[in-house]
Design brief:
The chain has 440 residues and is mainly α. It has a domain of 163 residues: Four Helix Bundle (Hemerythrin (Met), subunit A) (Up-down Bundle), CATH 1.20.120. The strands form four sheets. It has a two-stranded antiparallel sheet with strand order 1-2. It has a two-stranded antiparallel ribbon with strand order 3-6. The longest helix has 40 residues. It is globular, with a radius of gyration of 23 Å. The protein starts with a helix and ends in a 10-residue tail after the last helix.
Length: 440
């Protein structure tokens, strides 16, 4: 194994583990803010208990997410120094804004929310968690703008052997990045809704705190369905955007080898990259790929053979990840529709209640496979069309150094993930605090 592969494995592992925590932070902060708004508006104590119960799970997730995120940016100096020197003027500015504006705002108002229950008016306290939710989305926005620039570099010029920022406006209006941002937000909201419904279903199946978890379920079910629909509809639009800016990635996603008009889409495909083709192609949809990618059945779709072998993404991993992500996404849409149908009385479907807790990992997996498509499908470029990943790794580091740091990260992150699962599992099963006793 060489330094490049080891460095990629290390960054992929730390990023994927960190992104276990990010989507739940984005979606659950919004749901908790809505629950507290219900409490402020109605004065019903049950909504305050809901806010505190789901808020506790949010805080556990947020704390561990912060810990896992610390190591990510350090790797740009340790493992990817050439990349940092080449594009730091652009990439660094976006990360700096995220840290000094969005994360500072998020952490400040989260502290106010945690310690302000008895110190702030109900409306001011509620405003603080809404600001946390807004800041969490702002934080995701700046990070995804940075990643979106790597996918579709805009607003820069090459000078003195490095990329320099020429237009900050172009950077933040990058259409590719905005597509990514919408997709990530929708996926995060679906994950959070499934999280709330899964835990609610666990307790409802056992008859625990029925009114409490019925109301939680009724809040989460329409929320999840709406964003599952957004996710599926927008996924088509995002795919067309990929076809426009990254045709090699699209070809790898579909294992499409020959450039042709009226390109069919096969529902069953077995890629064979060694032979530059597919071993099996079944159930074709005539002109389906042309229609999906370019909204015209007569459109020409580039095949992988149009690209030099060294410029092609890893076909098997990109193809498999894309198909798995889409399959999970459709399953989540159907499951959220089932939950929405039973939202007024979830206990009338015992099968659904038994199934939903087991489905909590599915949106996590769908999101991770989505990021595999985005990042592996971009290869061999770290900045698409501008800088190759092989040219970005730090000079002067040894295999033993990267192996040692990778082993250390694996051990620490495994413990953090285990702690995350243990704490969320423990407090989810415990349920909410008992309602206050009525005064005699």
């Amino acid at each position: 194994m060489d330094i490049l592969l080891l460095s990629r494995l290390q960054f992929a592992m730390t990023t994927f583990v960190h992104f276990i925590f990010v989507p739940l932070t984005l979606g659950l902060s919004l749901l908790v803010a809505y629950m507290e708004s219900k409490y402020v508006r109605t004065g019903e104590e049950i909504y305050k208990r809901m806010t505190k119960f789901w808020g506790k799970l949010f805080l556990i997730n947020f704390a561990l997410g912060v810990v896992t995120g610390i190591a990510l940016e350090f790797q740009f100096g340790t493992n990817w120094a050439r990349y940092s020197a080449y594009v730091g003027d652009i990439f660094g500015s976006l990360l700096a804004i995220e840290a000094t504006l969005a994360f500072f705002l998020e952490s400040t108002f989260l502290g106010i929310w945690i310690f302000g229950w008895q110190r702030l008016s109900p409306k001011m306290h509620n405003a603080s968690i809404w600001l946390v939710a807004l800041a969490a989305s702002l934080s995701a926005f700046w990070i995804i703008m940075a990643n979106g620039w790597m996918q579709n570099p805009v607003g820069y010029l090459l000078a003195d052997g490095r990329a320099e920022l020429a237009s900050f406006g172009a950077l933040v209006t990058n259409g590719f990045a905005w597509h990514q941002f919408i997709h990530v937000l929708a996926a995060s909201y679906v994950l959070s809704g499934m999280f709330v419904m899964g835990i609610s279903a666990y307790h409802l199946a056992r008859g625990n705190n029925v009114d409490f978890f019925n109301r939680s379920f009724r809040i989460a079910a329409p929320f999840t369905l709406v964003f599952a629909l957004v996710l599926v509809i927008h996924g088509h639009s995002h795919g067309a955007n990929v076809a426009k800016h990254q045709p090699a990635k699209l070809a790898a996603m579909e294992s499409h080898w020959e450039t042709m008009p009226r390109a069919p889409q096969y529902l069953v495909v077995v890629p064979d990259p060694a032979r530059e083709g597919n071993r099996l192609e079944l159930l074709p949809i005539p002109a389906g790929l042309s229609l999906l990618a370019y909204h015209s059945p007569n459109a020409v779709v580039q095949g992988l053979k149009d690209f030099a072998p060294e410029d092609r993404p890893p076909v098997w991993l990109t193809f498999f990840s894309f198909r798995t992500m889409v399959g999970f996404g459709m399953a989540l849409l159907l499951l959220s529709a089932w939950a929405w149908k039973n939202r007024h009385d979830p206990r009338r479907s015992a099968t659904m209640l038994k199934l939903l807790p087991w489905m909590i990992p599915v949106p996590y997996l769908a999101i991770q496979f989505g990021w595999l498509v985005a990042e592996v499908g971009r290869q061999p470029w770290i900045v698409y069309g501008v800088m190759r990943t092989a040219d970005a790794v730090s000079p002067g580091i040894s295999v033993s150094q990267v192996v040692g740091s990778l082993a250390g990260f694996v051990a620490i992150y495994a413990m953090l993930v285990a702690l995350h699962i243990f704490l969320l599992g423990k407090y989810s099963r415990l349920g909410p605090e008992a309602p206050p006793r009525a005064k005699a």
